[in-house]
């Protein structure tokens, strides 16, 4: 793991992709947390879909609301994206030196490990992002104030709230998207359909984004709902106010029980619409950085 370049290229490409697709992520978060029957704050379904959510947020709260949480999101990608891609590329090179000799097993293992390690470290920035995206314009505060508020009211556990489903989702996303991209790219090049250029990178990244959206959306819904719930210290009393969901499995079961199976695919369209462009921007940027330097 002596080569630092995958870490730097991965971080720069991740930040670039995040900035380019962030408003879609905001609509996804709003769609995923609405309609929770057992949460009185969020029982109303304000948004009928991705486009309606985008327009309503823009109309009621202003354009800046679509970028609520961008600060922690960029900070997250600067840590999560840097570590994920660096560990993934380094792990692959530990097994095989030639990219054309890579196998799906090696790539999936490397992707899962990279996803778990990077997401666990970057979890506090993910919590900040979700909380800031979920808030309406009237309730917005700065990233630093939001961090202090979570720490003072919920402690260290509040900053790592949802870390298990976050790590699970990251393992699935990294274990699917990165290997799918690499294997698709390898087969396109080996079949002589196209060379190692932007067209190949575009097709491989589009395929990776679709695969990632299908496999990760249920975990993403659970992760978002766990991160958005607040376990507040009760002033003048011992203990805390009870959480809505006791665990990721409890959240999964209660969501399906109260809202149906397809509630796990709330926000799927913005997830796919975001992951598609995100992956395209990310991999095109990453490949260009590799060639340039």
From TrEMBL:
Question: Which domain of life does this protein belong to?
Answer: Eukaryota
Tell me, what's a Pfam family for it?
Answer: Mito_carr
Q: Which GO terms describe its cellular component?
A: mitochondrial inner membrane
Q: Where is this protein found?
A: Mitochondrion inner membrane
Would you indicate the residue range of the signal peptide?
none
Keywords from UniProt, A to Z, are: Membrane, Mitochondrion, Mitochondrion inner membrane, Repeat, Transmembrane, Transmembrane helix, Transport
Question: Where does it mainly reside?
Answer: mitochondrion
Output the InterPro entries linked to this UniProt entry: MCP, MCP_dom_sf, MCP_transmembrane, Mito_Metabolite_Transporter
Ranges annotated as spanning the membrane? none
Q: How does it sit in the membrane?
A: Multi-pass membrane protein
PROSITE patterns tied to this protein: SOLCAR
Spans of Solcar repeats, please give. 5-94, 102-187, 196-292
Q: Which GO terms describe its biological process?
A: transmembrane transport
Q: Would you identify the family this protein belongs to, as annotated?
A: Belongs to the mitochondrial carrier (TC 2.A.29) family.
PANTHER family with a match to the protein in the record: MITOCHONDRIAL DICARBOXYLATE CARRIER-RELATED
Provide the protein name.
SLC25A14_30
At the highest ranks, the source species' classification is: Eukaryota, Metazoa, Spiralia, Lophotrochozoa, Mollusca
């Amino acid at each position: 793991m002596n080569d630092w370049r995958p870490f730097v290229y991965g971080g720069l490409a991740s930040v670039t992709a995040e900035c380019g697709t962030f408003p879609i992520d905001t609509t996804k978060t709003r769609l995923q947390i609405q309609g929770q029957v057992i949460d009185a704050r969020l029982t109303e379904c304000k948004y009928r879909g991705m486009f309606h959510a985008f327009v309503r947020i823009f109309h009621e709260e202003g354009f800046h609301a679509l970028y609520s949480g961008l600060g922690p999101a960029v900070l997250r990608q600067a840590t999560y994206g840097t570590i994920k891609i660096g560990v993934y590329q380094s792990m692959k090179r530990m097994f095989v030196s030639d990219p054309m000799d890579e196998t799906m097993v090696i790539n999936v293992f490397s992707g899962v490990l990279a996803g778990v390690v990077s997401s666990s470290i970057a979890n506090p920035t993910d919590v900040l992002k979700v909380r800031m995206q979920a808030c309406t314009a009237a309730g917005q505060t700065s990233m630093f104030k939001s961090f202090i508020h979570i720490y003072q009211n919920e402690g260290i556990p509040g900053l790592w709230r949802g870390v298990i489903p976050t790590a699970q989702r990251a393992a699935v996303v990294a274990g699917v998207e990165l290997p799918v991209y690499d294997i698709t790219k390898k087969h396109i090049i080996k079949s002589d359909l196209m060379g190692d250029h932007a067209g190949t990178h575009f097709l491989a990244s589009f395929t990776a984004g679709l695969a990632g959206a299908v496999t990760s959306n249920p975990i993403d819904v659970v992760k978002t709902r766990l991160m958005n719930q607040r376990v507040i210290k009760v002033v003048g009393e011992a203990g805390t106010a009870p959480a809505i969901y006791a665990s990721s499995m409890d959240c999964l079961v209660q969501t399906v029980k109260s809202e149906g199976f397809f509630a796990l695919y709330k926000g799927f369209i913005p997830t796919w619409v975001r992951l598609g462009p995100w992956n395209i921007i990310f991999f095109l940027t990453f490949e260009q950085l590799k060639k340039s330097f």
